[in-house]
Design a protein that fits this description.
It is built from 4 helices and 7 strands. It is globular, with a radius of gyration of 15 Å. It is of the alpha+beta class. The longest helix is centred in the middle third of the chain and has 15 residues. It has one domain: Aminopeptidase.
Length: 166
Amino acid sequence: MAEPSISIRSVRRDDLAGVMALERAGFPPVEQWSERSWLGELLGERRTTLLARTHVLAGVIALQTVGHVADLLRLVVAPQHRRRGIGAALVNAGLEAVRRAGATTVLLEVAFDNDPAIALYQQLGFEQLAAREDYYGSGRHALILKLYDLPDRPPVTAVTEREATL
């Protein structure tokens, strides 16, 4: 089921409490990013951090662009909003933003057993590049996925509040 209306905008510093609530709801404690880590994403150079809202805060994505390569560092969708298109909307908006910033490829790591996330990324064109053993801790491996030829992707027409700033 799709969300009725999704708006996507850049994260502001005053959104940090909401981002932390998403982080706590979206990941077990050992995998959660700290408030300091998220603040680094908000204030860091070459960072793209976007927030998705429906009638409430529903998801957040963080990417970093260095040269022609962007890294999708974090995607969090509130559990009650998963499988409704929010993750795809955030990733598409993030891809468009880093494409505009000059990225030609995008890399990410995802837990090897996170089937919903892997399916989403593959649906969006990511391909498995490699695997990293114990990336998330002992016995918790990651797949490295890569999206090639980002400039050749058709531009995304996501619903946004401030599309020009993406």
